[in-house]
Design brief:
The complex is a heterodimer of chains A (about 280) and B (about 270).
Chain A (H helix, E strand, L loop, with lengths): L1 H10 L16 H23 L11 H13 L2 H33 L1 H14 L4 H12 L3 H25 L3 H9 L4 H38 L5 H10 L3 H29 L1 H10 L1
Chain B lengths: L6 E14 L2 E14 L3 E5 L6 H8 L7 E6 L2 E2 L7 E4 L3 H4 L6 H10 L6 H14 L15 H14 L4 E5 L7 H17 L3 E6 L2 H7 L2 E5 L6 E6 L15 H18 L3 H4 L1
Parallel strand pairs in B: 3-8, 3-9, 6-7, 7-8
Antiparallel strand pairs in B: 1-2, 1-4, 4-5, 9-10
The chains are: A mainly alpha (about 280), B alpha/beta (about 270).
Chain lengths: ~280, ~270
């Protein structure tokens, strides 16, 4: 009983992985409807811009934005900004995931580490990352180290909390089964606890991926000389409004693709989980 | 009746109580039990009599409040090697991220002294013994309940344990599947020279399978009857169950359980 009471502060951000609609449900009817709706909005945009409903200076036509976007892609300017951004993002993300899984496993597995680390986790987690960005700049400067640290730190918490929850929710019968075969200690962790908790870990990783993208853009906007966040802000400051919109468009596509690729991997790695939970329900 | 020197598992003065609302519940009270090598002992009793608790303590998965369990010469403090426990809830005990093959190989892989070829060979052999050849690459949740419990049995037997402890392993499957699993278990017990302790709430199942049946009373659980079952082998689901010895054993055990439940036997008949 005290166990559940203690874990309550952590549970609010944890989504039960089984209920999460991660399986892309392909129905052409619903897909087409949503894509069509985006098309309608873009046409409205085009009409609104053509009739100068907003100041044309800050609200160019979508067709001209797309043309600019294409030029920026072909000229290599946009790829040149996106690549360093992606490198920072993934470096930070994977560090964050690794540390988050590690600490989450420790906290879920060893009571001592839970008691030691739960309070500090709850203190650090609610701080919005832009708030500690100035402090990080003081220590790490404005180069990649700072951005990678920012991204890693922000990515860490969703993974940590979900890993912890995953470890706590491992079926005791699975653990006892392993024990009756003489499996304990680190083997129990790698062979039973980690795979059993993996649906939760993946949920955390997906949340962290979105967080990593956000923190990457923020840290590049504050201090950078390259990267997509820097590109958007400096385009706005230089009144290159079409470039600015093209940058935002790029981020939208990036976010979409990243999430799609993630779901693809998740569906493959966790195929057993979806089969198992469907079978049981 | 039981010769101590032949006993593989010995239970001595076992008590188990649980903290409950408004005091403690005594689940087991002074259990003494010797399980002889090669025997098939069923423990029957009303639900909640502590028979599963007793089995878990014998497996080293739970600790007694007082008393001891000895396996061979040693006192049981954790799961002893050579003693494998089969859970009632096969859907939860099988690892859903592992295929049938990998589940069966689980115990072998963790023995640490077997080559990959040996593991593969024994896994194949066990899957064949429980008649699941062709399902190696399936996941447990893709199989029926009876097949899943066969995977669990194969996984337990792959390690060539001396003792198999089974907690109501067939209670979640339908009657025909259960009869099939009973035959399979009898065969494996004979061919592999196993010692089996089998917990069930089904008196008929206990008698049919066993060489000895132990009936526990309602909690606090004590041993009410400890009787050898002298039925000839091979046993047959139809003829064995019609033998006078079978019916006498059944009558004795049921009478005891009915008395314990506060039922009169003529009412129940």
């Amino acid at each position: 009983m005290t166990d559940t009471a203690r874990t309550e502060p952590l549970s609010e951000v944890v989504v039960s992985p089984a209920k999460h609609p991660t399986r892309p449900r392909w129905s052409w009817n619903t897909r087409l409807l949503g894509i069509g709706f985006i098309g309608v909005l873009l046409v409205l945009w085009e009409i609104a811009a053509a009739n100068a409903i907003f100041p044309p200076m800050s609200f160019p036509r979508i067709s001209s934005i797309l043309a600019t976007w294409w030029q920026l892609v072909v000229s290599g300017e946009l790829p040149g900004e996106v690549l360093p951004s992606l490198w920072r993002m993934f470096a930070g993300y994977f560090i964050g995931v690794a540390v988050g899984v590690g600490i989450g496993l420790l906290m879920g597995y060893v009571r001592f580490f839970y008691n030691l680390l739960e309070p500090i986790t709850e203190v650090l987690r609610p701080i919005p990352s832009p708030a500690y960005l100035p402090i990080v700049i003081l220590f790490l400067g404005i180069d990649d180290e700072m951005k990678i640290f920012m991204i890693a730190f922000a990515s860490l918490f969703p993974v940590l909390l979900n890993t912890y929850s995953g470890v706590r929710s491992v079926d005791p019968i699975q653990l006892q089964t392993a024990r009756t075969f003489g499996v304990s200690g680190r083997k129990l962790l790698t062979q039973i606890v980690l795979p059993a908790a993996s649906p939760y870990i993946f949920t955390g990783m997906r949340v962290s991926l979105a967080v990593a993208l956000i923190v990457m853009v923020i840290s590049e906007m504050v201090a950078a000389s390259s990267g997509i966040g820097y590109f958007i802000l400096s385009a706005q400051r230089g009144f290159k409004i079409r470039d600015m919109f093209a940058g935002v468009l790029t981020l939208a596509m990036l976010g979409y693709i990243l999430n799609r690729v993630f779901l693809l991997i998740e569906n493959r790695v966790l195929a057993w989980h979806y089969g198992y939970t469907q079978q049981r329900s | 009746m039981s010769e101590p020197e032949r006993a593989v598992l010995r239970v001595r003065g076992l008590h188990k109580s649980f903290a409950a609302a408004g005091g403690t519940t005594v689940a087991l009270k002074g259990i003494e039990l010797d399980v002889e090598a090669g025997s098939f002992v069923s423990i029957v009793g009303p639900s909640g009599c502590g028979k599963s608790t007793l089995l878990q303590i014998m497996a080293g998965l739970a600790t007694p409040t007082s008393g001891d369990v000895f396996y061979g010469q040693g006192r049981v403090q954790g799961p002893p090697p050579d003693v494998v426990y089969v859970f009632q809830q096969y859907t939860r005990s099988l690892f859903p991220w592992k295929t049938v093959e990998r589940n069966v190989a689980f115990g072998l892989e963790n023995k640490g002294n077997l080559s990959r070829q040996e593991i593969a060979a024994r896994t194949r052999e066990m899957i064949g013994l429980v008649k699941l050849t062709g399902f190696e690459r399936h996941y447990p949740w893709q199989l029926s309940g009876g097949m899943q419990q066969r995977v669990a049995i194969a996984r337990a037997l792959a390690c060539r344990p001396a003792v198999l402890l089974m907690d109501e392993p067939f209670s979640a499957v339908d009657a025909l599947t259960r009869a099939g699993l009973q035959e399979l278990l009898r065969t494996l017990w004979r061919e592999l020279n196993l010692t089996i302790v089998f917990v069930t709430h089904d008196v008929d199942e206990g008698i049919y399978l066993s060489t000895r049946v132990v009936a526990l009373t309602r909690a606090p659980g004590t041993i009410a009857i400890d009787m050898p079952i002298e039925l000839p082998a091979p046993r047959d689901q139809i003829t064995t169950r019609a033998l006078p010895v079978y019916l006498e054993s059944r009558a004795r055990l049921l009478a005891q359980l009915f008395v314990d439940e506060g039922l009169k036997s003529e009412e129940a008949a």
